[in-house]
Write a structure and sequence with these properties.
This protein is α/β, with parallel strands linked by helices. The protein has 2 domains: 137 residues, Rossmann fold (3-Layer(aba) Sandwich), CATH 3.40.50; 64 residues, Alpha-Beta Plaits, CATH 3.30.70. The strands form 3 sheets. The chain has a 6-stranded mixed beta sheet. α2 links the parallel β1 and β2. α1 packs across α2. The longest helix is centred in the N-terminal third of the chain and has 12 residues. It binds ribulose-5-phosphate. Keywords: Isomerase.
């Protein structure tokens, strides 16, 4: 199976988790694109979705699923999203698609965060995937220097402007032994909007497609 076929397979496996939940939080990325295509088949059963990015909003609308404002709905029962890396504690690196801030907001506002990914995303220790950090544009160089002091090698994702009109630094060289502590430390740097480390609020259920099987943990 190709990586894309594995993404499609795991996207399909997430469908039972969104049955009868009314309003769903929907993430961003190529795995989620498959998930939205499957949602389209059951759209009569879905009241609406809260979207984590402009790209996802466009896709949801295109398939006929109403997009709702998070401020107008209560806590969400279920949020489904992908990840760039997943450790055994269900802590994640996210933000490869630059949607980390809205993704983190929806994850925080959801009772259950279902993470779906192909098997290549599983790791023992987070950090081989460069850690995305969304920053206020004028703070980019300052934040980069602070990240160097923490042992990282930040690289500006040039040309990328987030949906919130900010910039992204991708931080190489971290082997993240203590994800919650690092998340807190980076959050405390002035000018950081969000770090793509989902550790204090990890996923609740992870579905991974590994060959023919779906592994759930
Ligand atoms: O965090 C994300 C976007 O900001 C995505 O969930 C992550 O990059 C995984 O993407 P894909 O499903 O394309 O592998």
């Amino acid at each position: 199976m190709t990586q894309d076929e594995l993404k499609q397979k795991v996207a399909h496996a997430a469908l039972p988790y969104v049955k009868d939940v009314g309003i769903i939080g929907v993430g961003t990325g190529s795995t989620i694109k498959h998930f939205i295509n499957y949602l389209a088949d059951i759209k009569g059963e879905i009241e609406g979705a809260v979207s984590s990015s402009e790209g996802t909003t466009e896709h949801l609308k295109k398939v006929g699923i109403p997009v709702l404002d998070l401020n107008a709905v209560g806590p969400l029962q279920v949020y489904v999203d992908g990840a760039d890396e997943i450790n055994p504690l269900k802590q994640l690196i996210k933000g490869g698609g630059a949607a980390l801030t809205r993704e983190k907001i929806i994850a925080a506002a959801s009772e259950k965060f279902i993470c779906i990914a192909d098997g290549s995303k599983r790791v023992d220790v987070l950090g081989a995937f460069p850690l995305p950090v969304e920053v206020i544009p004028m703070a980019r160089s300052y934040v980069a220097r602070e990240l160097v002091k923490l042992g990282g090698q930040p690289v500006w994702r040039e040309g990328c402007v987030t949906d919130n009109h900010n910039h992204i630094l991708d931080v190489h060289g971290f082997s993240i032994a203590e994800p919650i502590a690092l998340e807190r430390t980076i959050n405390n740097i002035t000018g950081v909007v969000c770090v793509g480390l989902f550790a204090a609020r990890p996923a609740d259920i992870v579905l991974v497609s590994d060959g023919e099987q779906i592994i759930t943990f």
